[in-house]
Every structure is written in C-alpha cells, then in structure tokens.
Amino acid sequence: MLSASRPAVGPDGFPGFEAHAAMKAIDERWTREQIAALYHSPVLDLIGRAGEVHRRHHDPSSVQVCVLLSVKTGGCPEDCAYCPQAARYQTAVEADPLMALDDVLAAARNARESGATRFCMGAAWREVKDNSQFDRVLDMVRGVKDLGLEACCTLGMLSGAQARRLKDAGLDAYNHNLDTSPEYYGEVISTRTYDDRLETLQHVRDAGITVCCGGIVGLGESDDDRIGMLHTLANLPEPPESVPINALVAVEGTPLAERPPVPIWDMVRMIATARLLMPDAMVRLSAGRLNMTESDQALCFLAGANSIFAGDKLLTTPNPQVDQDARMFKTLGLKSMPAAIPVG
Ligand code: SAM
Ligand code: DTB
Ligand code: SF4
User: Fold this and answer.
1) Share of the chain above pLDDT 90, in %
2) Which of 91, 96, 126, 213 for a ligand 3 pocket mutation test, highest count of atoms within 8 Å of Cβ?
3) Can you list the alpha helix ranges (DSSP code H) found in the chain?
C-alpha cells in the first residue's frame, strides 16, 4: 500500500540502510530500527546529515513564521497531563468562551502585519460539535483566508463531514498531534485513544486538508517512545506536511508541572530525525523556545527546523517577544518565508 512512496534506501548519504530497506515489510516506509539508528547516531553527525537533506529540499535561510491564537480557552473536558487548559487541573488559565469573529480577524491582521504567513486557531475542545460555534469557526477560516494567510485550526476530534466543511471554508491545514508513542500515550491521556487521533487525521487527509501532526518532548517518555512517535508519523499513509516538535512547557497545576526542562540535544535529535524521515515537511520548532538561547535555536535550524510560532503568547503560555525573534533572525541571517500554500 505504501510502497509507491517508500524510498528505496534510507536517508541520503546514510550507508548501510540499503539492505535493511529492501527487507522491510511493504506497509512500512521506515522501521523502528532504522529510526533508532538515526536518532542515536552521534549528534553532530546527525545534525550534519539532516542539514544536508534540509538544504536539498528547502531554502535553509527561510523560516516560516506562524502565529497562534486561542479562540476558545480552557474548560476542556480532556485529561492531557501537560495541558493547562484541562478543566480538571487547577492552573492559572481562565476559561474564555469562543471569541467573536471580528476580534479573531483583528488578531489575524496584526499577525500578518508582523510578518506571519500562517495563522493557527486553537480551541480547547475534545471534539467539534455541529453547532453555531462551529459555524463561527468556519467564518473565522474564511476571514483568515481573505487576509491572504494560510489558515490552520486545531479543534480536537473531527468527523469526516466536519473536515469537509472546514475544507470548503478554505482551511489549509489541521493540527492534531499524536504527542508521543502509541505505548506511552495512555500514561499522558486517558480520555481518548491513539486510534481516535489517527481516525481524525484520516478524516483531515480524506477531505484534502494538509496534515499538521507532531508531538511533545519532555513528558517523561523514553527515547524509544520518541522513536515510536516518529515511526508512526513517518509511516502514515501520507506523511504530514507539517510536523510541530514541542518542548514541554511545564505549567503549574498540571500533573507534569515538575518535569525537568528538556535538554536541547533531545530537541535537536527529534528535529534532525524528523527532517531525515520527512524531508519535504515543514518541521516546526514549536513550544518551549522561551527556555532556549539563540544558539540553542540555531542548532535546531541547522538540524532542519524551518518554522517557529511567533508572538508573545503561544495558546496560553508565554513565548519570546517579537523583537527578540527579529533580532535572532538578523543575527542568524534568517528570513521570513512567504506562505507555503498558495493563498487568495
Ligand atoms: N484541544 C485540541 C487538541 O488537543 O487537539 C487543540 C488544542 S491543544 C492545546 C494543541 C496541542 O498543543 C496539543 O496537542 C499539544 O501537543 C500541545 N500542547 C498543549 N499544552 C502543551 C504544553 N504545556 N507544552 C507543550 N505543548 C503543549
Ligand atoms: C503545536 O504542536 N504546538 C502549538 C500548536 N500546535 C497548536 C501549541 C503549543 C501550546 C503550548 C501550551 C500553551 O500555550 O497553552
Ligand atoms: Fe483539551 Fe487539547 Fe488541552 Fe487536551 S491538549 S486538555 S484536548 S485543550
């Protein structure tokens, strides 16, 4: 089923993968063993190889700037252990109902003026319901598209029909993260399953919306769990166009509040391995940049990251200031990428 798009050999320049690749089952583009070999290779070598692949598939000086907006905040019935928006944890996040259309479009206009080309709207929902709130989100998508921005939503689980309505409204991308490996998922979330996530991803794909799917480093998962998540992503029937790699933002009141910060080398290994497995994807250095120095982030760009979320807030947690990112772009010689998806 997947053999058509399966590469005959491993990542360009990695010797010793040919025989292994030829022996693999046809429904698997990448084996866990291959991914583990990449992930565990000496880190400078891994960065170098990923950088080569990055340069072959993308302009390495171009970084897409995305802006997030929480259009419906907090009060979520799910129990994701990392999330400050889950109603069951006592966090500083205050629940807010679905924003008014005009306020969302004003934020999108600001995002465009600050140089962003992709606008991502998040809602703290378990799933989308067919009601007037969904109708309003569809209007938000139409409005964001009219501004010439790529439009992305992350709203929880979706049916096939809901995905088609989002597509008809002009949605470019849907973010729905797998977060971790299938084995570790139950340690982090109990109110839905990995298969629920995969089902929504399939609805998104079937509707012709591009898939944005990644995960979080620092949940207490093992290297094997990180490899397991990348294995799932790289072997989806079609790999995601967009892969956000988040470092956990440990928020007081959540069960993961005391998790130690993620070592930068773990982020680098995840990003570089994702880049090698999914050469054409946008690999997004997502949550957690506030704890990273400029040089930490430079390592992530060298390893193949080519997008960030900008603006002083992610969904509910702080993010570097816009002028700080502007200085970083100048120092590193990076430029803001035009919209990757044709707009208008
Ligand atoms: N409710 C929807 C859902 O879960 O799909 C959409 C919003 S949810 C906040 C979007 C993603 O943000 C999650 O899948 C998770 O990967 C990421 N996220 C949430 N809290 C985070 C945290 N504290 N640190 C890092 N990433 C986080
Ligand atoms: C993704 O993978 N990371 C973004 C976006 N997709 C929606 C969200 C990060 C949220 C971090 C915690 C917060 O600010 O609430
Ligand atoms: Fe709800 Fe999404 Fe947070 Fe989970 S990650 S608690 S589904 S808002």
Assistant:
1) 90
2) 126
3) 18-23, 32-39, 43-57, 101-113, 132-146, 160-169, 185-188, 194-206, 223-234, 264-277, 294-302, 322-332
Q: What residues are annotated to the active site?
A: 76, 80, 83, 120, 152, 212, 284
298 vs 258: CA distance, rounded Å: 27
Distance CA 283, CA 281 (A): 6
Contact between 265 and 41 under an 8 Å Cβ cutoff? The reply is no
Tens of pLDDT, residue by residue over 199-245, are 999 999 999 999 999 999 999 999 999 999 999 999 999 999 999 99
Q: Which of 221, 199, 191, 185 is nearest to 78 (CA)?
A: 191
- Residue whose structure tokens are 């794909």: 205
Best of 69, 79, 80 to mutate for ligand 1, by most ligand atoms within 8 A of CB?
A: 80
Ligand number nearest to the C-alpha of 311? 2
Cα 250–chain centre separation: 18
d(CA 307, CA 284): 5
Distance CA 341, CA 344 (A): 10
